[in-house]
Amino acid sequence: MIKKQIADNVSEALDKLKLKHTKEFSVEIPNNPDFGDYSTNAALMLAKENQLTPKQMAEKLVKELRKNKQFKSVEIAGPGFINFRIAASLYQIMLWDIHKQGKNFGSSDYGKGEKVLIEFVSANPTGPLNIVSARAAAFGDTLYRLMKKVGYEPAREYYVNDAGNQVDILAESLELRLREIQGENIGEFPYEAYHGEYVKHLAQKLNATEGVRVFMMPEKERTEHLKEFALREILEMQRQSLERFDVQFDNWVSERTLRQEGVVEEVLSYLTEANCTYEKDDAIWFCSTKYGDDKDRVLMKSDGSITYFVPDLAYHLTKIQRGYTKLIDIFGPDHYGYVPRLKAAFRALNYDENILEIIYLQQVNLYEEGERVKMSKRAGKIVTMDDLISLVGKDAARYFFIARKASAHLNFDLDLALQKSNENPVYYCQYAHARICSILRKARQENIYPRYFKHALIRKLNRPEEMALIQKMTALPDLLIDIVNKREPHLLANYTHELCALFHHFYNRYRVINPKRIELSQSRLLLIETVKHTLGICLDLMGISAPEKM
RNA sequence: GCGCCAGUAGCUCAGCAGGAUAGAGCAGCAGCCUUCUAAGCUGCGGGUCAGGGGUUCGAAUCCCUUCUGGCGUGCCA
C-alpha cells in the first residue's frame, strides 16, 4: 500500500522536475532500520538517462519530495539511495484502514476472476498417500487459497489413474492375498506386486463380506470386481487422509470414465489429423521431437493398449474445454521427463503451451536418528501421509511443507517433529495468536474495548515497535500478489513468522492493558486486534489453525 | 552422456527480475516470570555465500566454467 504511494510520489516529483524516467526503479523496505522505513533506488537507476550523477539526481528529488507531509524525513544516503521515514500519522491511518477491512484485509481483484485449474496430488490409486503427496497437498491447497484471495477463480482437481497397468497389478495382489487368507498356498509373493499391509487388510475386509463367492465368478468378471473394490476402498482412504489434512478437491476426474467417454480415440484422431503420428514396430508414435521433445513417444503400444500419456493429454484438453485459461500441474520430481511431450502435444494441436504451467516439487527425505529413512513402495515399506499427520499433527506438517520452497529438496527430521516442542516454528506463530486472544479476553473482563475510532486514540500509537507492526501489516496485500505471481507460498510462512516476531517483541516491551491509561490501552488493543486478524488470515491461507488458547 | 534441482553459520533453511553492514530457527553460552500466556524476550559467539573467471558504480543474486550431492532420461504411471 505504502510502497505504491511512495513510488507514485517519486514519479510525480520526476514529472514536476521534468526528468526522464524510462527505466524502472523500486521502493523497498531496507533491512537496516537506520536507512529509514522505505527506500528507493530511483536516483541510481535514472541518473544516467538524465545525464546527472546519482547524487545530483537524488538532491533534486529530495528537495521536491520533502514538500510531502506524509514523510517525516527524506534523506540521501550511500551512493544515492533516497531513504524515507514515514510520519506516524500515516501509519495510524493505515492501521485504522486495515482494522476496518477485518477478514477481507489482503483480498484483491488482482486475478480478475481468471479461471485457473490446479491439479495436484493425483497419486496412483494403488495405496495410501505418501509423504510427497502430503507435500503436494499442502502446497497445492495453499496456492489455491492464495489465488482465491487475490481474485482468481481457482479450482482443485485430482486426476485418478484408475485405468492403467498399476491397477491391474493391484487387483492381482489383492486376489493373491485373498487366496492366502482362504488357506491357499500362493508360494512366494511376486516381486512386482504390492506388498503393503493395506492389501492384506483389504483382502480381509473383502473376505469378511464376500468370502469364497469371489472365486465363483468367471476370471474376467472377478478381476473387474476386485479392481472396483480395491479402487473404491483406496480412494476413500486417500480422500480421508486429505480431509485430515484439511485439503478438499472440487473435482475428482477418473481416467476410466474419460476412456469410456471415448476421449482416447478423440485425441488420437486429433493428433493424426494434425499429421504428427506414425506407425513403427507395430506401435503408434507421436512425433513429439518436431515440437521440442527429445524423442518421439509411443501412443499405442504394440499390444494394442494405450500409454498413460494419451488419456492424460485428453484430460488436459478437457480442462481447456471447460473454460480454464491457466492450467497449473503440481508434479513430483519423477515427472520431469514427461512434461516436454505434454507441451509438445499442446503445440502440435495448436494450443498455447503457456497455458500449461508445471510446478515441480522436489522429493522429501525423512530422517530418523540422523539416518535417512529408506522407503520402497514395492516392498510396502513407506511412511504414509497418515503416519506423518498422526506423528506431528496437521498444523505442523502443513507448516513444514509450506515453509520450504517447492524446488528445494526437503529434509524432514522425524525426531525433531516428534518432540512436539517449541522447536517447531509453527507453535511460535500459533502462540502469538493465542497470546493476543488472551489479552483481548482479559481486556473484556476489565471492560476495556478497542472498538471506537478516535483520532486522539490512534495518535497514542507512536512507539517504534508499534510502527513496525503496522508497517509489516501494510505490506501484506502486495506480498500476497507477489507470492501468487511467483507461485512461492513459502514466502507467506516467512512473513507470518516475521509478523509474529514483531508481535512478541512488542509484547515483551510494553503492556497492553493498563487501567490507569485507558486510551493508550484502547489504542493498543486496536493494534493487537488488527494483528490478530492479519495473523488469522495468514494461518488460514496456509491451512493452519489459529488457536484461541494454547 | 544429456536435462532438471540444489550447494549460504555446527544443523535445517530464508535472502536471488543486482543494491547499503548476508538473515532466521535449532544447537551452545549468559540473563529476564509478585504485572495481559516464559511454546516468549534480551545479549554473546558463530560465514572464503562450494571453487575460479567475467559483466558494472555495486554480485550470494546475472553470464561462463569446474567440483560435489540428488533426481530424471521406459512400448511404467
Can you give a write-up of this model?
The chain is α/β, with parallel strands linked by helices. It folds into 3 domains: 2-86, Arginyl tRNA synthetase N-terminal domain (Gyrase A, domain 2); 124-250 and 362-420, Rossmann fold; 424-542, Isoleucyl-tRNA Synthetase, Domain 1, CATH 1.10.730. It has helices at 2-16, 42-46, 54-65, 88-101, 131-149, 165-181, 197-210, 219-244, 255-260, 263-273, 309-321, 339-348, 385-392, 394-402, 414-418, 425-445, 455-458, 464-474, 476-486, 490-509, 518-542, and strands at residues 27-28, 38-40, 71-77, 81-86, 115-119, 153-160, 251-254, 277-280, 283-286, 297-300, 326-331, 356-360, 364-368, 371-372, 410-413. The strands form 4 sheets. Strands 7-6-5-11-12 form a 5-stranded parallel β-sheet, sandwiched between helices. The protein has a 4-stranded antiparallel β-sheet with strand order 1-2-4-3. The chain is globular and about 90 Å long. The protein starts with a helix and ends in an 8-residue tail after the last helix. The model has no long low-confidence stretch (mean pLDDT 90). It binds one RNA strand of 77 nucleotides through β10, α16 and α20.
Task: Work out the oligomeric state of the chains in this entry.
Answer: single chain
Gap between N and C termini, in Å? 33 Å
Task: Output the CATH class name of the largest domain.
Answer: Alpha Beta
Structural class: alpha/beta
Radius of gyration: 29 Å
Lateral strand order in the biggest sheet = 7-6-5-11-12
Per CATH, what is the topology of the largest domain? Answer: Rossmann fold
How many domains? The number is 3
Mean pLDDT across every amino acid position: 90
CATH architecture of the largest domain: 3-Layer(aba) Sandwich
What ranges have pLDDT less than 50 throughout 5 or more consecutive residues? none
Mind describing the biggest β-sheet?
5 strands, parallel
- The CATH superfamily of the largest domain is HUPs
